[in-house]
User: Fold this.
Amino acid sequence: MTNLDQLEVTRYLDTARCAGDTDTQGKAYEALALYLFECIPGCFAERNGVSHFKSEQIDVGVCNSKHQSGLHALPHVILVECKDWSHPVDSSTLGYFINILDNRRVETGILIAANGITGDARDHTYAHSLGVSALARGIKVLVVTTEEIEKLTCTEDFVELLLRRFLSSYMRGGIGVP
Assistant:
């Protein structure tokens, strides 16, 4: 575990922004996610998990030992999907991620989406509408944007952001968003 370094975060984001192709861009965004989670006390992470039949790919898997200064309220296993897209993530992409979570009986997934997801959280429209049925199946999806990552000053900021999103998903009955 290391303390989050804003310059390191900026370096990852700059690498993603300056990438010549979407594959390099995506890998830089995944590396950023790995870095962020490895900064959290009690967490370690791995990248690029592929299912046995090679039909599903996980960007980042996080093992959470529930350290008191870390993600103590979140489950032991968290899966992370990274989308450094120029537009919000749509409902079909979010639905696919929720299906992966459900197939593995993983209770919490984190979508690091550069520009969030489509729709309106209050009205549960578009991608937000999937949060209601996901929560009914015991699945919480927490959304984190690039703008929010850029504002992080320390590891505690990231931990608080995720814990607040987790609470938000329960309170709103849907996707954990600001």
